[in-house]
Amino acid sequence: MRIFFTGGSGKAGQYAVKHLRDLGHLVTNIDLDAPADGRSLRVDLADAGQVASAMQAYADFDELDPGTGVPRYDAVVHFAAVPRIMIVPDNETFRINTMSTYNVIDAAVKAGVPKIIFASSETTYGVCFHDGEVKPAYIPIDEDHPTVPQDSYAMSKVVNEATARSFQARSGTDIYGLRINNVIEPHEYAENFPDFMAHPEKRRRNIFAYIDARDLAQMVERCLATDGLGYEVFNVSNDDLSVDLTSDEVIARFYQGVPKTREMGENETFYANDKAKRMLGFAPKHSWRDVLKS
């Protein structure tokens, strides 16, 4: 597949781009920080003209050789964003994230791209950046949980989901949103997780969950391989908790009084990934336990 991938130089994007290229896909990295090499373009995604032009442009010199014009992209993966609050002013976070998503999906639909995948966020559930402590409405959190956040970043992601749903209704294009949990790179297990073991309260805002960057890359692969779902959103997380406590111990310390919709496994994540497994065949392979318990 020829894939237009925004944010491919970021923490999560770089793993997905490498994974997709290793599978043989032709991936164009669209990023303000993209390297000046083949299959990369530096694009301001908040500028609709730049996005439309980039999506219908050559991606590398080898595409000139057939003499048949610019090839069409088979898929768009949109990961680029201001990644959290407190990087730029709140209104800029909201503007950049909502306008870039609108521009990318709009350009993709008009270009006839049949598959669009975009990054939403765990923050949509309103826990991560809440002013003070707030508990989930129920556990485990699934895709039906209310999405009423307080902060500009999560607000932008909720708006992006509405934008994507509307474009899908108008076009019939497959558009899948990924509510990505806290992304962890392999080296961060040894660096950060011992502290999480000693201070599990530090994981409260992430719902005691995480997603290995390599498993997130697999999730993108599964979305690309699965057609015909229309508009869907999926939680993306690993199977286990990000702290060395059992599910019952986490409930006793942090979630007393929170309704539990079903029985849970001993170390099962509170950020339910059942839907992605059922509909996409998502099968996370990595765990901090493989590193710190070995």
TrEMBL record:
InterPro entries: Epimerase_deHydtase, NAD(P)-bd_dom_sf. CDD domains: SDR_e. It comes from the Bacteria. Gene3D superfamilies: NAD(P)-binding Rossmann-like Domain. Residues 4-226 form the NAD-dependent epimerase/dehydratase domain. Pfam families: Epimerase (PF01370). SUPFAM superfamilies: NAD(P)-binding Rossmann-fold domains. This is Nucleoside-diphosphate-sugar epimerase. It comes from Loktanella salsilacus.
